[in-house]
């Protein structure tokens, strides 16, 4: 086989690339172990409405690697997707998130909170995805109405009809759907109309440029108008400054998520950033 590859052989034996492959294989093996040894955990980032009240959170997975310390999901999620580990990993995230939702449901003070969970394409494509989610809701006792699944545009374009069928089935049980990183992918408006979404999530790249770039404002306004006319809620992600928050509010945004309100943190830290709920744990 090496003989056949001819001029490609040099590229194949590129030492830098070789090192990267070795590192990747090692990290993949570590992730498999880490998943079994409870090295993964969830952090929660607050989602805040126009009154400054916390209405929910997004669950963000973290990996505490025994040697490398904290590994970013930006690094290990793509790895998990390529290797197929995203299936057990995604199931673990869903289970952990639903357990948290079930706890909140027991407390009148937190029962209104929603929890958003990121879902990868490979997860959604599993033939029994709907049954997996319903079973997890059932065995944790989490209320379906408080669960929101975050999908991306590219993921949905893969096989729209399959995605829509599964979304419709879960929506019938009360599960909500948010379109993550909205505006960065390719979405046809006709297609957007067919998706049973509950929310659009304005990508942080538009929020970042909001104060300096009139064009970013125009895009935000267009997304909000689109959402309003489709009856969807709009949340902005990556809100870091009061100026950004005010500009978003002036342009009709409904909810906000970002470092201005809270960094992703433990569930106790989430309560502290909710002025109307923090008294409870004092
Ligand atoms: P995402 O779903 O778009 O999540 C938002 C990311 O922006 C998070 O990065 C969050 O920590 C970060 N962020 C929040 N507020 C701010 C802000 O004000 N400024 C800035 N600069 N960043 C902010 P994180 O936690 O590193 O996650 C990165 C991505 O990894 C996520 O993007 C999501 O696509 C993926 N991910 C995270 N957890 C999961 C998971 O459980 N399952 C799957 N499939 N993907 C996940
Ligand atoms: Mg997300
Ligand atoms: Mg996002
Ligand atoms: Mg994003």
Can you walk me through this structure?
With 282 residues, this protein is an alpha/beta fold. It is 50% helix and 20% strand. It contains 14 helices and 9 strands. An 8-stranded mixed barrel has the order 1-2-4-5-6-7-8-9, surrounded by 4 helices. The longest helix has 22 residues. It is globular. The relative contact order is 0.11. The structure holds ligand C2E and magnesium ion (3 copies). The site of one magnesium ion (MG) has 4 residues, from loops.
So what's the oligomer here?
Answer: single chain
Q: Kindly report how far apart the N and C termini lie.
A: 67 Å
Largest β-sheet summary: 8 strands, mixed, barrel
Assign the structural class, choosing from mainly alpha, mainly beta, alpha/beta, alpha+beta, or little secondary structure. alpha/beta
Instruction: Give the low-pLDDT segments.
Output: 276-282
Q: Identify every distinct bound molecule in the structure, by name, code or SMILES.
A: ligand C2E, magnesium ion
Tell me the total number of β-strands: 9
- Using the CA coordinates, give the radius of gyration: 20 Å
Strand order of the largest sheet: 1-2-4-5-6-7-8-9
What is the general shape?
Answer: globular
Q: In percent terms, what proportion of residues is strand?
A: 15-25%
Number of helices: 14
Q: What's the helical proportion of residues?
A: 40-55%
Q: What series of H and E elements makes up the topology?
A: HHHEEEHHEHHEHHEHEHHEHEH
Please tell me the overall pLDDT. 91
């Amino acid at each position: 086989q090496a003989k056949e590859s001819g001029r490609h052989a040099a590229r194949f034996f590129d030492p830098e690339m070789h090192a990267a492959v070795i590192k990747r294989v090692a990290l993949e093996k570590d992730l498999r172990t880490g998943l079994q040894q409870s090295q993964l955990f969830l952090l929660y980032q607050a989602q805040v409405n126009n009154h400054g009240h916390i209405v929910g959170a997004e669950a963000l997975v973290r990996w505490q690697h025994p040697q490398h310390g904290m590994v970013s999901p930006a690094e290990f999620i793509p790895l998990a997707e390529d290797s197929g580990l995203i299936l057990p990993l995604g199931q673990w995230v869903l289970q952990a998130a639903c357990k948290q939702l079930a706890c909140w449901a027991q407390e009148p003070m937190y029962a209104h909170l929603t929890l958003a969970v990121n879902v990868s394409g490979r997860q959604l494509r599993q033939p029994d995805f709907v049954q997996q989610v319903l079973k997890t809701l059932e065995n944790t006792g989490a209320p379906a109405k408080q669960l929101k699944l975050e999908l991306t545009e590219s993921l949905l374009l893969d096989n729209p009809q399959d995605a829509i069928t599964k979304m419709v089935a879960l929506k019938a049980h009360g599960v909500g759907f948010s379109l993550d990183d909205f505006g960065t992918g390719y979405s046809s408006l006709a297609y957007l109309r067919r998706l049973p979404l509950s929310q659009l999530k304005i990508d942080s790249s538009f929020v970042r440029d909001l104060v300096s770039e009139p064009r970013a404002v125009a895009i935000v306004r267009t997304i909000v108008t689109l959402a309003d006319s489709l009856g969807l809620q709009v949340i902005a992600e990556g809100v870091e400054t009061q100026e950004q928050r005010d500009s978003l509010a002036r342009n009709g945004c409904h909810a906000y998520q970002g470092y201005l309100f809270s960094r992703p943190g433990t569930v106790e830290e989430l309560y502290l950033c909710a002025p109307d709920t923090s008294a409870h744990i004092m």
